[in-house]
Amino acid sequence: MQCIMGALLGLGSLIIVESPRWLLDTDRDEEGIIVIADLYGKGDIHNPKAREEFREIKMNVLLQRQEGERSYAEMFRRYGTRVFIAMSAQGLAQLNGINVISYYAPYVFESAGWVGQDAVLMTGINGITYFLSTIPPWYLVDRWGRRPILLSGAILMAVSLSLISYFIYLDVSWTPTCVVIFVMIYNAAFGYSWGPIPWLYPPEILPLSIRSKGASLSTATNWAFNWLVGEMTPILQEWIKWR
Question: Is the pTM here over 0.85, yes or no?
């Protein structure tokens, strides 16, 4: 199945069009207006809305050129704090432990007392809970704001992880049930907060002139820490004598 999805992505990349903003930024205006017309004017390059969008993007591109050089060095010199926030948001989204649960959920449930197929079943139910938790941000992100969502999610995740550890330590008859409940709460807390918001935040705080560079660095940070968590978790579990 993964090979099929990868093949579909590869085939899709052959027909995807370039970003109109990038085309206008590289002075390929004719290609840019065609893409914009396809998006806004059903292919009509004389469509008023398409022409207005073209002028607005081109004007912004020209204004940004007046800001001067847009190299990585200049980006860090002028916007170092913003880039650091963008990168750290993605890094912390991994270091909060979500992929320990995502990658090793059956082992976590087995350590709590769920055995064999029951552990796999709980993993599936946990995945459904995770998916459902990503729906509320569609409606809350602009009502609550980014910061309250991140803070509330962090608090819920910290409390849930602490209680998971405590119940596993107790190792009593109701430990399996409590662990499943708080793993689901933890995943749901991540799903509505630190899951989506770190992807939204970097493009919002970075100016257009360096947005592509800053966003790419934040994304690279996410996957770098994703790899680190995935590789180090088994080693650390062995080191701390994880059951």
Answer: no
